[in-house]
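Reading a protein record of the kind used here takes only a little practice. The integers have meaning only within a learned vocabulary of local backbone shapes. With that in mind, consider the following protein and its fold in token form:
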Amino acid sequence: MKVLVLVADSKERALVQTALEKSGHEMISADKIEQALNSIELDQIRFVIMDEEALGFKKPDLIQQANDPNKSSRYFLSLTSLDKDTADFDDTLHKPFTVPELKARIRIGQRVLSLADNLSQARDQIDNMAMYDSLTGLMNRSAFYRTAAGELERARRAAAPLCVIVLDLDNFKSLNDTYGTETGDEVLKVVSQTVREKSRPYDCIGRWMGDEFIIALPNVIGGDAEKIAERVIKGIRSTQITSKDQILNIGVSAGIASVQRISAATEVEPLIQQARQAMARARESGGNQVNVFYV
């Protein structure tokens, strides 16, 4: 671990260096707040040991500027006298101090950072569970709805077009009945990957329900959306999926709801339902095709 040290006294700095070396850490020194902030950013430093009074600047200055709520947490250890206010620091070591005392405080700081990282990872996992479908990795229904609503508002402000594509696997129920749900799950994974690959990087893609997938296409009119849907269908049809050495034929029907200009009355839910109805018509017409509904 790289540790930033802001200590003016040469004897104290030598003690800090000894403690860090014995703990297996690398010491990086700074004597000005600008230099310290630069080191924190460039070297991705998360542990800081400082005697801010000796360096001539107030303690909140560095802490407030260095802490970024969008980045990993940092730990600040103060070296100070007994009567000094250290409320802004994570921990305080009173002077004079010994190498073993400092090593113990460093271990505590490491443990706190580790716990903070574990908590952050747990929160990320919870956020992912709340947004993404666990099987396919695509946005789940509620997350797609919120994201598509945001795209609709942007299109409304820009007076831009918007399309919604709903894709449904034509023969998925019989496939599940014949080959089992494990094979069905594998098919959904492969199909979701193909949908992602054949769509634009910034398109909003989700798993709507069961074997239905949904895409919101900002700044796309019906004809272009139809080409995208056909590209996805072709990609799925050309992807070789096997079960028990047998190649599975996956049919896909697509429905599109296309809005040339978003009005004040345009809402996400009706567009999705219109796209689903268009998809049902494509499936009733034999499947493996696209039906477009112009709003």
Remarks:
- The chain has two domains: 2-130, 141-294.
- The radius of gyration is 29 Å.
